[in-house]
Design brief:
With 91 residues, the protein is α+β, with helices and mostly antiparallel strands. Helix content is 30%, strand content 34%. The protein contains three helices and six strands; from the N terminus they run αββαβββαβ. It has a single domain, classed as SH3 type barrels (Roll), CATH 2.30.30. β3 and β4 form a beta hairpin. A six-stranded antiparallel beta sheet has the order 1-6-2-3-4-5.
Length: 91
């Protein structure tokens, strides 16, 4: 029930602007909305169990754009190139 209301609220508010995962702050909860030029990248993310519309938390960031993310208790390290190609919105 709550998820349905959240989706309805998002539609009423309109789309929020997306930005690169590399720009998200530590501790920020974001939702994956798309990935640019991502044939191989999408397959790599799917093999890790990460899909479009998943909510993730940015645990740690590195200077080159590399990020450590968490999804449902599992942590994944993504390089700067990958993080720059993944577009997210704030939750």
């Amino acid at each position: 029930m709550q998820r349905c209301c959240e989706n309805k609220r998002r539609r009423e508010m309109g789309p929020s602007p997306s930005f690169s995962l590399a720009l998200a702050g530590e501790g920020e909860k974001v939702r994956i909305v798309s990935c640019r030029r991502c044939g191989v990248l999408r397959e790599r993310l799917l093999s890790m169990g990460i899909h479009i519309d998943d909510e993730i938390i940015v645990v740690q960031k590195q200077n080159g754009g590399a990020v450590l993310i968490e999804k449902r208790g599992s942590r994944y390290a993504l390089g700067g190139g990958m993080a720059h190609k993944i577009n997210v919105t704030r939750c």
